Every structure is written in C-alpha cells, then in structure tokens.
Amino acid sequence: MSQQFNAQNIKKRISTLVFLKGSTAPLVLYVENPQEIYAELTQLMKSTSAVLVEKETQGPIKKVCFISNQMAAVALQEEQYV
After folding, report:
1. C-alpha angle with apex 81: 55 to 2, nearest 5 degrees?
2. Are 12 and 80 in contact (CB under 8 A)?
3. What are the tens digits of pLDDT across the range 41-72?
4. Is the full-model pTM beyond 0.90?
5. Rounded to the nearest 5 degrees, what angle is found at the Cα of 72, between the Cα atoms of 71 and 73?
6. H or E segment at 45?
7. Are 82 and 12 a contacting pair, CB within 8 Å?
8. pLDDT in tens, 11-32
9. Kind of pairing, strands 71-81 and 63-67?
10. Quick check: helix, strand or coil at residue 6?
C-alpha cells in the first residue's frame, strides 16, 4: 500500500542541461520554460559570434553566466521527485 501512495506523489519536472567545453559536469538549469531555453541555447550554438548568456533559475543555481561559444551540448532532462 505504501508503494501506491508513493507512486501517486511522484511528480515530474524537466530541466535544461548545458555542457560546457572543458567541464566534466553539466549545468542543470531549472527554469519556467525549459523547452524555450533549450531552443534559445541551440540557436546560440549555431551562431558564429560569441555572446554572453545570463540566466536566472529556480534551482540550487540562482544565476548563471557563460559565453555561448563554450557550449558543447544542450539537453532536456526529465526527473521524478516527490
């Protein structure tokens, strides 16, 4: 019965992951609209000019800043939490 109760309380959230060149761990960004941030960052990766990217987030990282030409990859991650 406790397994049923726990399964009902499990929620899902999506975060945007940013992999930076030379870094072993990605930046995990919890934002209002992760798909929008993903699309924005992938467009910046296609650009030949480097721009400063600054984002405010809702997770443990409150504000982050990096140069767009230092991004190696961007991903969306779905996580479960209670």
Report:
1. 170
2. yes
3. 999 999 999 999 999 999 899 999 999 999 99
4. no
5. 95
6. helix 34-46
7. no
8. 999 999 999 999 999 999 999 9
9. unpaired
10. helix
